[in-house]
Write the structure tokens for this entry.
Amino acid sequence: RFVREPRSVRRCFHSDAMPLPAHIQSRRDCLTFVVLGATGNLARRKLLPALFQLYLTGHLPPRARIVGVGRTELTDEQFHEFVAAAIRQAWETPRAALAGQGGLAGSGGSGGHQRQASFHTLNRQSSSMDLDGLFHAPPTRADIGGCAETLARTTIYQLDSPRMDKDDIGAAGDPDRAPQSARSSAPGSRRISMGSVSLGEHTYPACPEHCLVDFLTRTRYARMFPPVVSGARRASDSSSSIDDDAASTADESLRQTFDLVERWEAENPGENLRRNRLYYFAMPSELYPPVANAVHRGGRAVDGGWTRLVLEKPFGSDAVSAAALNRHLAKAWMEKSLYRIDRYLGKEVIDNLLVMRFANRLLTPIWNRDNIANVQIIHKEPFGAISDYFDRHGIIRDVLQNHLLQILAVLAMDRPVSLDPEDIRDAKLKVLRQVDRVDVEHRVVAGQYVAHEGKLGYKDNPSVAADSRAPTFAMIVLNIRNERWDGVPFILKAGKALNEKRSEIRIQLRQTPGDIFGDQPAADVANPEAQNAYAGPNEFVLRLQPHEEMYMKLTIKEPGLGVQPVPSEMELSGRWRAEQLRKEAAGEAPRRAYERLLLDAVHGHQAHFVRGDELEAAWSIVDPVNAAIESGDVPLHEYPFGTRGPSQADALRAAVGHVAFVVPRDGVHLSSADDLASYDFSPKYASVPAGDVWGRAMDTGPGLMPPTHSA
């Protein structure tokens, strides 16, 4: 006999007493994603492709609509053309880059290599490309472990060409009786589509047009008119309340946007349906106050839905302007509704750093001044700076103040109370406030690149003033005054127009006390045994780009007679990287930073976003450096385009205790170009013909490549 459950039990299971997890609830709600500045460079290169990838992999909520807002007068159809062009470019860039490197184009079949060089040669050529930002091939059933039931739309167009198996070939074993999709590719191949490009284990397919067409039906465009730039700048510069003209202009500018949002929500009726709104501010920070207040007055969600603002960097231009912006926003918005984005916090390696630090007994006891000699946080870009935005900000405001200082905070913070976002951000804030004031005279090197080998210098750009003091290179050495880190130099280096694309963390350990094998390079270069006795310091390396990886430099015994120590590397990220690719391909988890951060904002997870007081603390660290550079107290050293930066930076790095030493058996993926260029190999390998040393890298396996630029 059925017994009716008590009212209290029914309330427990059917009321708000047991809310759904955020990632599940978001799929049931209506979401409007408003991109303010949708026709700008950031939206074209990052946001729109990231939103499309989230849609393609099934992570974008089903009831999501994207509203682009810009000052350009466009129809919906014209905006669709803009969005489609941006997404196609994001998909075609890796394919075109690979095709341009020796004709690595797919044959229309399995996409094999179209040249006879060794795999390691192809691997080296790909190492200069940012594979982290590229779209990988969708998986076959075998790739995702036979998981056919997945929300990822990628499987729709991936599984149309599965690998052949006995069922496909048929009972008689006749390949001609197999389905066309199976006959189109040989066993074990990954034929995605005509014109696909392959490199090693990666295949880059053409953009799935049928999915793109469906995605465009979810997008609309609203013009921001009249513009609100002048009033917003007056308000920001004065650090006072927003003037009435700027406020009324912002309200009028966004009226069409709010009408579009309301119409979309009216098309999704439902008694228990929440209608959420997320506004992405891809615009200059001086526009934040009036636009945020206009959203507060006329664009907030109703009927229990949430409204969140995602704010792009740079957030202000110094500590004073950042504090003023925080005060403006705090008048109408709570901190839990503000998501100040830093894309480096969305990278897998940074999350992995948090786990590895506090979950491994092997690392936790040595993460201090007694065992770590120095820390490098490096960001290098091989291309120059051509935008007016960069000339107003420089490399310190553009990269070092946000990306590199956020990495420093995660790397150096003490164990947080819990994994709650506020506890993590409290721990980061504490360590940022413990950074000493920078010694700008002895611990800072700044530079600007000049023309070299046909590449224009920074001031050759017509939009850059002849007397511009915007640095394109900066190295700053910081000290954290606390019990854990006092005395350990943190070397932050960022630059444009350098010799490679690379972002990484290099943690160099102190030498073993009483090392019987030799604790430093011998002064007697004529004695090979003395030279070979030093195997270099241990290092822990976490690389963010051009590809994510982790490894440790250790000392082991040379095979053979004797106990000759040699440096080697212990790769930590092989299985992790393979699992990462599998989960991305199966639609379980996105890998790229913007996709992860956009999902975090939708789910309300703020651990990967920067709190207002963190930003103010970070600005306080770099403000004296910017002031010294702009006043001329810190000189701008010239360096040629495509080199490693000013030579003064190498001298500063050596002066604070960094030891440049290369692992001779490092592969290209595991070696540092800084070390390669600054280390003299001739004494160590005086008895080995140079052709044999470099030939190993080109012909028989991974190894060192000769330096292409002098130190």
Observations:
- The CA atoms of residues 110 and 190 lie 6 Å apart.
- The longest strand covers residues 372-380.
